[in-house]
Structure of ORC1-type DNA replication protein:
Amino acid sequence: MSDDNSEGSDRNVDLGSTRGFGSNLEESNLSGSGSDSDSDPDDEPNQGLFDDLLSGEPIFENKEVLRPSYTPHELPHRSDQINKMATILVAALRGETPSNILIYGKTGTGKTASAKFVSKELESTSKKYSVPCEVEYINCEVTDTQYRVLAQLANKFIEENERVIETQIDSLEALLDDLDEYDDTITSDESDPDSETTASDVPGDDSFVDDGVAETTEPNFDANSSTDLESGESEPVNRVDLSTGDTVDLTSSELDSPVETGGSDTVVDDDRSSAGSETEGDTDRSHDDDYEHPLADTPFSSAADVEDRIASLEADRESFEEVPMTGWPTDRVYSVFFDAVDYSERVVVIMLDEIDKLVEKSGDDTLYNLSRMNSELQNSRVSIIGISNDLKFTDFLDPRVKSSLGEEEIVFPPYDANQLRDILQHRSEVAFKGDALSPDVIPLCAAFAAQEHGDARRALDLLRTAGELAERAQAETIVEEHVRQAQDKIELDRVVEVVRTLPTQSKLVLFAIILLEKNGVHSINTGEVFNIYKRLCEEIDADVLTQRRVTDLISELDMLGIVNAVVVSKGRYGRTKEISLSVPIEETEAVLLSDSRLSDIDDVQPFVQARFDN
Ligand SMILES: Nc1ncnc2c1ncn2[C@@H]1O[C@H](COP(=O)(O)OP(=O)(O)OP(=O)(O)O)[C@@H](O)[C@H]1O
């Protein structure tokens, strides 16, 4: 013992300023004492707290891929649902409005993962083909009121509009720079006596080349624009009605695209020579190549046009007003959202995950407003994808909303054990080191999760937790026992979470049941629970609910799997519920007592007597 201590203190001294981390620890100890004088306290070596833990071969290669936040690139056994979604949403890429979609399925059946996968594909394809289409995802469990949903969407679209404006302004400014450069070059060419720059130097449309230079007395970029190149100035023409303020989609590729001269140099040369053009020779040919007019193939006919457009974009940007997270009247929020969506031509897909939570919390107003938007939008189109694991929530919807929202329905059935096995197999290849898994681990995780209504999230949790437990035990491989321990741990964690988040009244009812069980009462009935519950309420000054309401709370606890309540017939005494606890008593009691209100109940013993008093 004393040796150990001295070794520990040696460590402190010896490692001093010269030694690094763990792997050098032993070696450093052996190296004898070093000088104290030059040791910097900030560089003090660690005492190896983590070294042992780090020294074990880690089981995981990449644990992140087993976490719920990871979006897989492949979703085995969901191709039917994914293809169906894609078939509906492809309309957006054709500039049409896709039907609204309702996605149903129990928890962990891959609804969110599949919908996100499809929307990623949709957005990237829309970029590829330059068809404006955006997907906005909202989790209604978090954003659960009409105000918040609309505000969040409004702000997202405002942000997106600002981004688009920024890009457009950048491109327009680059265009102005090009114009300046072009003007400078033309001016310097004009002052060069060797170079005879005339109107025919300007790139023109097809007719310019085809018809021969001689005919092209007034060069033009296209049917609507004309430029006096001798003065080097562009004359404004009515190519674009700037007064409408329509968004001009100026991508940099459009801006950079070369002017169509309508033919090769050879053709141009031939035409020119045969037409006896004023412009001849190499210099002119190089002008055609080098000095394409920057405004050709743009909707602008002069620098002033471009500047006007920049000013109007800047004014638009100034006019955007971010919605605060509270405080505005809802119709104002709606109107800002509406304008933000309609700012430019595009198809917008709004994905409302856990949509049932939104309806439960704040009715169907949001869905009503969103589903009738298309009839009023001028530029854009909106389509909704609702995701829910509650199949019944549409019963609470206004029939119009229900039929509009459910234009297309896609069901995600639970996975069976074989499918879960495939999913786990795919992930485990990336998640674990080579032979970290013993062969029975994946089948066991899949079997446990299949019992839980085929929940892939549960299966992945089990596999990850089993890996963590094995790692903690410094085992080299994950074995069946780790999976069983993981199953118990997850179950306990679930119970703790459910109990912790119960409302106080339910906690009191549960506490009453625990007290009865702890005092050896079996086959507890509702009346007994009610009596203890009443005393507990009095003790902490809580409202006392009616016995009927307490019976309902017991049924809710039963549904949550915390208690087991069976109805038994007592012959001529009628029927009664027999209640027992389905969760570990100690842990559950500890969670209840961690609630500050319940922790006031200190001496619980006397309450149990109530059973015998009544
Ligand atoms: N076919 C699959 N292939 C790979 N991973 C999957 C598959 N299905 C689901 N998962 C994974 O399972 C977890 C749960 O999936 P997801 O969140 O999509 O379920 P959900 O049906 O939306 O559940 P909830 O209704 O609880 O939100 C995620 O980590 C997801 O990546």
